Amino acid sequence: MTAEALRALQVPGKPLVLPNVWDADTARLVEAAGFPVVATSSAAVAASLGLADGEGAPVDEMFGAAERIVRAVAVPVTVDAEGGYGLPPAEVAERLLALGAVGCNYEDTDHVNGGRRPVAEQAERIAELRRGAGAGLVINARVDVFLGAEDERAVLAEAVERGRAYLAAGADCVYPILARSPEVLAEFVREVGGPVNVAPLPGGPGLAELAELGAARISLGAGLWRHARGLLEATLGEIAEGKLPY
């Protein structure tokens, strides 16, 4: 599948569902379950390497893991590239294309200096990423203003401004990560004027409701990894008590 075919799967109201993976084995399971695209989770990949999310893992290790995932499956892979690991956007594009990815997440958090990058700066970074990738990457631009926000409505206007700017700069989709309120999500979708990626969160809308809100793409993020890890932790507890649960 090409990047253009992946773009075509991002349909508002009929979203592409992405169970994010962390290694080649989990990628194969997603493919075997019939999902047409594999996505990575930076948090889960970093944890599997024994390292921290938020660009706490070296770029070579993160991209090496992504390349192993790409090689393991026949379906296309979109890679969580965090904020680009301090690399120039054109180099991020070049490296993603070289390892075989057809899409990426690209966030506006500045992991070196902290906080979010100014809108204009991040829009230019997305434009540079687009110029470096041409049409070969589906860019999912993350909007991070809801991270840690006590009042989602208070940051909604900034989120919409960022979403519009990122789409205008060449992003294919925007991702208001950790936005939870159905009303806020619906307004963001209406106002931003382009495909929106959302995530199902505890206490928030489920898959069907997110589709009704107009999502074009649904990412599980680190949720699948956390769920699997919780099951493994519980199983290990049983074994420690002398019970063999399988």
Question: Could you explain the architecture of this structure?
Answer:
The protein has one domain (3-240): Phosphoenolpyruvate-binding domains (TIM Barrel, Alpha-Beta Barrel). The chain is built from ten helices and eight strands. The termini are far apart. The chain has 246 residues and is an alpha/beta fold. 47% of the residues lie in helices and 12% in strands.
Features:
single chain, 246 residues, alpha/beta, TIM Barrel, five-stranded parallel beta sheet, three-stranded parallel beta sheet, 10 helices, 12% strand
Secondary structure layout plus pairing:
Layout: H1 3-8, E1 16-18, H2 24-32, E2 38-39, H3 42-48, H4 59-72, E3 77-80, H5 89-99, E4 103-107, H6 119-133, E5 138-143, H7 152-169, E6 173-176, H8 182-192, E7 197-198, H9 207-212, E8 217-219, H10 223-240
Parallel strand pairs: 1-8, 2-3, 3-4, 4-5, 5-6, 7-8
Helix pairs in contact: 2-4, 5-6, 6-7, 7-8
Organism: Amycolatopsis panacis
GO molecular function: lyase activity
Protein name: Isocitrate lyase/phosphoenolpyruvate mutase family protein
Summarize the structure.
Keywords: Lyase, Pyruvate. This protein is α/β, with parallel strands linked by helices and 246 residues long.
Largest sheet: 5 strands, parallel
N-to-C span: 38 Å
CATH class: Alpha Beta
* Strands, total number: 8
Beta-strand residue fraction: 5-15%
- CATH homologous superfamily name? Phosphoenolpyruvate-binding domains
Oligomeric state of the chains in view: single chain
Protein structure class: alpha/beta
- How many structurally independent domains? 1
Q: In DSSP terms, counting alpha (H) and pi (I) runs of 4 or more, how many helices?
A: 10
CATH 2nd-level architecture: Alpha-Beta Barrel
What pattern of helices and strands is seen along the backbone?
HEHEHHEHEHEHEHEHEH
Strand order of the largest sheet: 2-3-4-5-6
CATH-defined topology:
TIM Barrel
Fraction of helical residues: 40-55%
Low-confidence stretches: none
Radius of gyration: 18 Å
Mean pLDDT comes to 97
- The 3D shape can be described as globular
GO molecular function, one term: lyase activity
Protein name: Isocitrate lyase/phosphoenolpyruvate mutase family protein
Keywords: Lyase, Pyruvate
